[in-house]
Predict the 3D structure of the following.
Amino acid sequence: MAQTPMSPSPRIRFRTTIRQTGKNTTGIEVPAELVAQLGTGKRPAVSVTINRHTYRSTVATMGGAFMVSLSAENRAQAGVAGGDEADIELELDTSPREVTVPPDLAEALDRDPAAKKRFGGLSYSQRRTHVLSVEGAKTTETRSRRIAKVISALQ
């Protein structure tokens, strides 16, 4: 049986002004007709490229508009700020979204099979939130407390 070549992921390009949505929050408004071209529902996972900097995100509806978030870290790496005009490229991101669980959190999850099972059933963004909380701790004591809090929340 002959295999058919995989079709490339849908990709859209447009120029827009980076939208300042709060004191330090920005986003990229995506025209509705372009979201439709991605061909997957209203919250497609996308790879975003601005000035040769690429990051992963999701198109979300905010205030009736389709938006992609643009964090301070991604703004700095792309060299843009709120109010700047930029060329944007969005490509449908079909690769799995995996979270790298730090060893100490993984050990705590291994000690509690029920919590580990619940953690595995969480969405990518929920797992990532827990991992970022642990990784953001500045001291060993804080890290330990946060791990305990994650386990407690999953019980």
